[in-house]
Specification:
- The complex is a heterodimer of chains A (233) and B (264).
- With 233 residues, chain A is an alpha/beta fold.
- Chain A has a single domain, classed as Rossmann fold (3-Layer(aba) Sandwich), CATH 3.40.50.
- Chain A has 6 helices and 7 strands.
- In chain A, strands 3-2-4-1-5-6-7 form a 7-stranded parallel sheet, with helices on both faces.
- The termini of chain A are far apart.
- The model of chain A has no long low-confidence stretch (mean pLDDT 89).
- Chain B folds into 2 domains: 219 residues, P-loop containing nucleotide triphosphate hydrolases (Rossmann fold), CATH 3.40.50; 41 residues.
- In chain B, 40% of the residues lie in helices and 17% in strands.
- Chain B is built from 9 helices and 9 strands.
- In chain B, strands 5-6-7-3-8-9 form a 6-stranded mixed sheet, with helices on both faces. Chain B has a 3-stranded antiparallel sheet with strand order 2-1-4, with no helix packed on it.
- In chain B, a hairpin with a 2-residue loop joins strand 8 and strand 9.
- The radius of gyration of chain B is 20 Å and the shape is globular.
- Chain B starts with a strand and ends with a helix.
- The model of chain B has no long low-confidence stretch (mean pLDDT 89).
- The chains are: A alpha/beta (233), B alpha/beta (264).
- At the A-B interface, helix 5 and strand 7 of A face helix 1, strand 5, helix 3 and helix 5 of B.
Chain lengths: 233, 264
């Protein structure tokens, strides 16, 4: 099972990019499963299931941060995708506090940023960008060539090893190289570890237990199929 | 990036027929228009160019650069992409002063740091020949008018980006001096491709690509008669612009204006 984790701020076009990737994966005979991790509301799973007829699921992180939730449920999700006879698991997750990143070693880490969010954005998103394998820049037709180039240079300043791909997800421009990257990713290892070092904190992940799967944790744990509705304050 | 020529090999129309024009060569220095009614496939053609289509888009078109398959890095590495794109949606988002903004961009583009100041000065001078209201280096990008923004987008793509191919998708609507623009662009050896509904731009181009039913149906080189038509169109168009400006300024029209539109 190949694992792709797609992160990025809200409204950057993560789902639009993944939709294009799913279409091309299906065309090339690869069946993906789709998991959406969000805090309290998401409907992308239903839209994608309807559009492509592939297995989809969502999980609400609720009182956990989405990256913490990801660590908890990814182990289960890999088993689920395998049971559904898929070759790729695509995980879409919201990036929120910008102190850690959801990517795991052995999986493809993809951050989606929009060119319209200002030239300094790459300097502000931290490990979500610097720990990614590829940075996908969307909405490139909306900004001047100058800002597009400055945006790109700022990404390279922050994350020199991250490969940049510029796309127009609405027109499907620039998607093929992403699909090639997905297909070139080796199957994810059985035991998976979070790629980055999380910030200081008191939960098991925050204190550095990085192994994926709720079985490896104590305190607040969460299997994939346990849904709680989070109301916040 | 020494690009001399771009070749488009035809694919299929929307109704599945072979594209009438099966081969088109665009050479460095060409100023080209793409014309056709709404929905005819102008933007699709632009997309094929932007994608370096290789029979992998819905049209089945293929693109060669200098007679060969374009290197993968054109597609994979945005820094190597030889195409600059300006669409009707393209705008500046930065609120930096113009001079500072252009300096940041020039610093990223230019290896020779002693050239930066000169690049910025030339870009501003270029933009200011296209627009009536001069762009000052201290004005903030977000305060630029529609015409100033278009003018600066074109100047920046031509001088600082300096990519060999520039695509301009319906940029005519915001008041820039189009005759002057094309005259200036001709001084730079690039391929300029305008998607346009503007007869003035179409007739000032070396040739125009006619798109119908998702295909290139014809390529017309602007001949002597059409060039003369173009001159008349410019006179007509200027007369209209003058009228518009007079009305805007709160002036009344007189016999002179009546004659200017009658004989035009």
């Amino acid at each position: 099972m190949r694992l792709v984790i797609c992160a990025g701020p809200a409204t950057t076009g993560k789902t639009a990019v993944l939709r294009n990737i799913i279409r091309r994966l299906l065309e090339s005979g690869n069946r993906p499963a789709f998991l959406k991790i969000d805090v309290q509301y998401a409907e992308e799973d239903e839209q994608i299931a309807k559009e492509f007829n592939i297995p989809t699921k969502k999980t609400y992180s609720g009182e956990l941060c989405p990256d913490h939730c990801g660590v908890m449920v990814l182990g289960d999700a890999m088993l689920w995708a395998k049971k559904e006879n898929c070759q790729v698991l695509l995980v879409e997750t919201a990036g929120l506090c910008l102190r850690c990143a959801p990517y795991v070693d052995g999986g493809l880490g993809m951050v989606v940023l929009e060119a319209t969010s200002g030239m300094n954005l790459p300097l502000k998103v931290g490990p979500m960008l610097s720990l990614a394998d590829i940075a996908v820049v969307t909405k490139i037709d909306r900004v001047s060539q100058a800002e597009r180039e400055v945006f790109r240079a700022r990404i390279q300043d922050v994350a020199p090893k991250v490969r940049i791909h510029e796309v127009n997800a609405l027109q499907g421009i620039g998607i093929d190289p992403l699909v090639e990257r997905v297909l070139a990713t080796p199957p994810a290892p059985e035991r998976m570890f979070l790629r980055g070092t999380p910030p200081v904190g008191t939960c098991t992940i925050c204190v550095g237990k990085k192994e994926v799967g709720w079985q490896a944790h104590f305190g607040v744990v969460r299997p994939l199929d346990q849904q709680t509705f989070y109301r916040g304050e | 990036m020494n690009i001399q020529k771009m070749t488009i090999f035809g694919g299929r129309s929307k109704s599945g027929l072979p594209e009438p024009v099966q081969r088109l060569d665009l050479n460095m220095g060409d100023v080209v228009s793409i014309v056709g009614s709404t929905g005819a496939g102008k933007t699709t053609l632009i997309n094929d160019i932007e994608l370096f289509a290789d029979a992998n888009t819905p049209t089945g078109r293929r693109l060669l650069i200098n007679g060969e398959k374009p290197p993968a890095e054109y597609r994979d590495n945005p820094a190597c992409n030889p195409i600059a794109l300006i669409t009707q949606h393209t705008t500046f988002l930065s609120d930096l002063p113009v001079g500072e903004f252009l300096t940041i961009h020039a610093n990223i583009r230019s290896k020779d740091k002693s050239q930066i100041e000169d690049l910025v000065t030339r870009t501003l001078a270029f933009a200011n020949q296209l627009t009536g209201e001069p762009v000052q280096p201290l004005i903030r990008m977000t305060e630029l008018s529609g015409g100033q923004t278009r003018a600066l987008l074109i100047a920046d793509a031509t001088i600082i980006c300096n990519t060999p191919i520039v695509l301009l998708d319906e940029v005519e609507n915001a008041g820039i001096n189009r005759n002057r623009a094309i005259e200036l662009l001709r001084q730079y050896r690039k391929i300029f491709i305008f998607v346009t509904h503007d007869p003035r731009i179409a007739l000032l181009s070396d040739y125009r690509i006619v798109v119908k039913d998702g295909s290139i149906s014809d390529v017309f080189h602007t001949d002597e008669i059409e060039r003369k038509c173009g001159e008349r169109v410019s006179v007509l168009d200027d007369a209209l612009t003058n009228l518009r400006n007079q009305l805007r300024r709160g002036e009344r029209l007189s016999q002179a204006e009546l004659e200017s539109i009658t004989c035009a």
